[in-house]
């Protein structure tokens, strides 16, 4: 074969050297030309290149065709196979494995399911995966960029040169892929993308990166493929049998970066948190730890709610395996892990998802739909099946790969309403003319349905602040399909009541009772979250009126009111010991406060409330059903006294009584459902909690009465600013 027959056209050579070649896999590597085979390679800095098979058979020297490093040569092989080059210059020699000698890793079934939007294992296909392929070890990279002219993998391994590892375009799906031999665990990489207008975009982090560099660096990292060895099989099996609506759920909400710091002010690692946070929460009697977002994010004060790496546990505290060890340790201690998950929006950092391939790909092009005015972020385009698939797979990824027990979905209201935080003319109605985001509704139903179908025993929680109907009703009945919804109304009403001076509370009695009007319309979590103790709102103890003693008494009574109220419980870190200062993400909680009796008393109370809640079925088995609650006294405005009964089939009832004035109520008559002995299980005024240590000497006796609605009555002492739990004690 003559040189003129097999030698590449100079325009194609220039296209490779200039990073503009439209089909590198059809030109580079081992190519059949007529009856022969030609090798073409672009190796910058090389002056000589010799080709070898993987088993070391020399195939010959390649001819330099361009001073930038393009070589080609006719070789004697009988079939396509991996090739290794020995490159050299005056400074030495080095080996280069040819990525263009390999076939595609993704297959036609991947194309089919990706195109359909029904692929539920994208996290195993896209991103970076270290593997053995066609006889050699390396890493497969794949990314969705349908409008790009070129996509390349770049990193220190190729001097961040986008000309050297352009990817194969799978035109049907817009997926680009390449297998790069030898690369493996710890390799830093990004994608260099040439947009549809021919402009090279800022380097992009991998949307499916499962590990990232520590901020402020932003490269993605090839993760260790070694499977994590879990030890929580028994926990997972037991979890799958639970109906969480009828199971105790007391959640400790935590920001990992500020729960506790090292003596030098640095972050605790995931392993240190497993050693310190997990036993602390378990000893406190919580059932779950909820983590504010630990998905990778560039800006600490965003607390993780502006993520740039939805598949990567943040590198602030360690690598993915360390996070898995944290979850495994929590499960060993009987604690579930809930993650705050942010599918509503994403930041516009240039290395992230914004205009990923030079077009509005993950977001809407129209800012009336694609830009969030409150947070200066981009809004996901839920009408695009690839975007929905990206997010659904992300939820399933955390549940499967890290054994996460639940996802609390952030900012659901912003997804549901097209006019959220917008004035007239600033939003686009749906196809029916309404303000509901119909595509977002379908996305929410899909992700919830798939999570419950594939991972029994896990649950989804909505942070949804409006009256959208059926948030926690099954998707197949027309609901959104969440398991639970945060009860923002309960939080707002009760905190407003508690912040008032006691003398004024009688005029606002309904703030504490109104929640029962709708308490069972959804499966509620009662949240006292980070949102209530930041941005000038002060801590919970500082919201309480009165002198120091009254502030603590108010907060103790309020916590017990909440623990006795229907609904699951959530308390933000630090509030369990009455953190004085407003929460700040840049420093540790004030743990030294536990040396003070009033603060330690508060911590003891929360521990005992969790214990009582878990031990008394009447307090949790009908948390979400009206037959588990009945008012005893709901209208004593003058005294700001509330009393209600918690009950469950086959369980001893529990009477909850709150006195929200600093006036002790002696000889207070209260109707009772059963005559007999009622044990004082919780008294927030007890000396153990640094209260004034008044009460009913541990028990109350209810005597039978006739001619009244309730069959019994008790005369009790209500300590000032207190809540009592009275449990019926059968003979």
Topology, please?
Layout: H1 3-6, H2 10-17, E1 29-33, E2 36-42, E3 48-53, E4 58-66, E5 70-75, E6 83-89, E7 92-97, H3 108-116, E8 127-133, E9 136-144, E10 150-154, E11 168-170, E12 175-181, E13 188-194, E14 220-221, H4 233-239, E15 250-254, H5 256-259, H6 270-283, E16 288-291, E17 295-296, E18 309-313, H7 320-332, E19 336-341, E20 345-346, H8 367-370, E21 371-372, E22 377-379, H9 385-401, E23 406-409, H10 412-416, H11 438-454, E24 459-462, E25 484-486, H12 488-498, H13 510-513, E26 524-528, H14 540-543, H15 548-564, E27 568-572, H16 597-615, E28 629-636, E29 641-646, E30 654-659, E31 665-672, E32 676-683, E33 699-704, E34 712-718, E35 722-729
Parallel strand pairs: 15-16, 15-27, 16-19, 19-23, 23-24, 24-25, 25-26, 26-27
Antiparallel strand pairs: 1-2, 2-5, 3-4, 3-6, 4-5, 6-7, 8-9, 9-12, 10-13, 11-12, 13-14, 17-18, 20-22, 21-22, 28-29, 29-30, 30-35, 31-34, 32-33, 32-35, 33-34
3D structure, described in words:
The chain has 731 residues and is an alpha+beta fold. 21% of the residues lie in helices and 26% in strands. The protein has 16 helices and 35 strands. Strands 15-16-19-23-24-25-26-27 form an eight-stranded parallel β-barrel. The chain is elongated, with a radius of gyration of 31 Å. The mean pLDDT is 96.
Main attributes of the structure:
731 residues; alpha+beta; 8-stranded antiparallel beta sheet; 16 helices; 35 strands; 26% strand
